[in-house]
Design a protein that fits this description.
Distance between the termini: 83 Å
Shape: elongated
Strand order of the largest sheet: 12-11-13-16-14-15
CATH class of the largest domain: Alpha Beta
Number of helices: 8
Helix content: 25-40%
CATH architecture of the largest domain: 3-Layer(aba) Sandwich
Order of helices and strands: HEEEEEEEEEEHEHEHEEHEHEHH
CATH topology of the largest domain: Aminopeptidase
Number of domains: 2
Largest sheet: 6 strands, mixed
Number of strands: 16
Oligomer: single chain
Radius of gyration: 26 Å
Strand content: 25-35%
CATH superfamily of the largest domain: Zn-dependent exopeptidases
Length: 346
C-alpha cells in the first residue's frame, strides 16, 4: 500500500513538472525592455524581448474605438510594470496582461478615437553593437488633416522622394550658411510622414545627411544612384526630387517645378505640384518648365523636380529654414500629388 502511495505521488509530481515545463516552453520569450518617446507628434513605443517572436499582431480593440491591442504570443511579461502612464497627447496609458498559458497582451489606451489616428507595427532585429534586443515597435500619429486632401487618392501608391544633395554635397548655401541639403531633407521627411499616414508607400533616396552613391562619387554616379532607387522600387508611381533654387542675384525669388516630357503624365505631375506649392507656400509663381534634368529624364515613371524657393534670397532662405514654411510646402506637395493621382485616374 505504501509503495502505491509513493508511486502515485511521484506520478503527480512528474505530471505537474511536465505542465510547468510545457508552460515555460510555450512562453520561452520574455519582455526585457520597455521604452516610449514622442518626436514630431509621433508616439513610438518599443518593447524589447530576449529573442524574436512569431505572431505579433496589432489591431483596434473590438467595441472600443479608443484602444489598440498588441498580441505577444508565447511571451512572459516578467517583472515589467503592468500599467504604464504615458505623457502623450496620442495615448494615455499601457496595460500589460498575461493571457492563458504564456501569451502576453498590451492594451494601449488612446487619447482620441482610432479613426483620427494612424498607427503601424514593425519589428527590429537585435543590435549587438548598441546592446539593443529584438524589438517590437508601435508608432502612433495623428491622421493628416489637410483641406482638400483625400487619402483615397494616394492610398496604396508608391512614391519615391529624393531630397536633393546630401553628405559631401551641400547643394546651394544661403547668405547665412543655411544649406540646401538640410532643408530638402527636412521637407522630404515631412512629406513622407503625411503620405505614409495616408496609406502611401514612400521610398526615400536618403533619410539622413549622406551621399546616396557614396563619398567621392561623380555627379553622374550620384544622380544615377538616386534614379536606381526608383528603378529598384517595384511598381513606383512617381519620382519626386525636392530642391531649393539659387542665383547670383539675391533678389531672385519664387517657386518653380520642372518635368521632362517622357509622357503626358510628367507635365501633369509638375503642374499639379506647382499649383499647390504656390497656394500653400505663398511665394511668387515662376511656373512650370520642361528641363533635361538627369533624375527626371532617366526615371522610368513620371517624375518632377521642384524648387521650393531661392535659398540665395535672404528672406526665402529664412523661410526654407523655418518649421512653419516647411510644413506648408510639405502640405502643398502632398496636395499636388493628391491632385495628380485624381486627374490621371490611376
Amino acid at each position: 500500500m505504501q509503495k502505491k502511495i509513493v508511486s502515485l505521488m511521484l506520478f503527480v509530481c512528474l505530471f505537474c513538472l511536465q505542465g510547468f515545463v510545457g508552460a515555460e516552453a510555450q512562453a520561452a520569450n520574455k519582455i526585457t525592455q520597455f521604452h516610449y518617446s514622442t518626436v514630431k507628434d509621433v508616439l513610438q513605443i518599443e518593447i524589447g524581448l530576449n529573442k524574436e517572436i512569431p505572431g505579433v499582431a496589432l489591431q483596434a480593440v473590438d467595441g472600443n474605438s479608443s484602444a489598440l491591442l498588441l498580441d505577444l504570443k508565447q511571451t512572459q511579461l516578467g517583472s515589467i510594470k503592468k500599467r504604464i502612464a504615458l505623457d502623450s497627447k496620442l495615448a494615455q496609458s499601457i496595460e500589460l496582461k498575461q493571457v492563458g498559458r504564456g501569451n502576453g497582451q498590451m492594451i494601449i489606451a488612446l487619447a482620441q478615437p482610432v479613426s483620427s489616428l494612424k498607427y503601424k507595427m514593425y519589428t527590429l532585429p537585435a543590435d549587438r553593437k548598441t546592446g539593443k534586443p529584438f524589438r517590437v515597435v508601435v508608432e502612433i500619429r495623428k491622421a493628416p488633416v489637410i483641406e482638400g486632401f483625400s487619402a483615397d487618392n494616394v492610398n496604396g501608391k508608391t512614391i519615391v522622394l529624393d531630397p536633393g544633395h546630401g553628405g559631401s554635397d551641400t547643394g546651394a548655401v544661403g547668405p547665412d550658411g543655411i544649406m540646401e541639403k538640410d532643408v530638402t531633407l527636412a521637407v522630404a521627411m515631412k512629406v513622407e510622414s503625411l503620405l505614409s499616414a495616408a496609406g502611401a508607400h514612400v521610398v526615400m533616396t536618403r533619410e539622413a545627411d549622406c551621399d546616396v552613391y557614396g563619398p567621392g562619387a561623380t555627379d553622374r554616379q550620384e544622380l544615377q544612384a538616386r534614379v536606381d532607387v526608383g528603378a529598384n522600387t517595384p511598381g513606383a508611381d512617381v519620382f519626386l526630387s525636392i530642391h531649393a533654387n539659387a542665383f547670383t542675384n539675391q533678389q531672385a525669388h519664387g517657386t518653380a517645378a520642372y518635368y521632362y516630357a517622357k509622357t503626358d503624365a510628367d507635365g501633369i505631375l509638375a503642374q499639379s505640384l506647382q499649383n499647390r506649392m504656390v497656394q500653400y507656400g505663398g511665394l511668387y509663381d515662376r511656373g512650370v518648365s520642361e528641363a533635361n534634368f538627369y533624375v527626371m529624364k532617366h526615371s522610368a515613371m513620371p517624375a518632377s523636380l521642384v524648387e521650393m524657393a531661392f535659398i540665395s534670397n535672404p528672406n526665402e532662405q529664412n523661410l526654407l529654414a523655418s518649421d512653419d514654411f516647411q510644413d506648408k510646402i510639405a502640405k502643398g506637395i502632398c496636395l499636388g500629388l493628391n491632385d495628380y493621382f485624381a486627374q490621371i485616374g490611376n
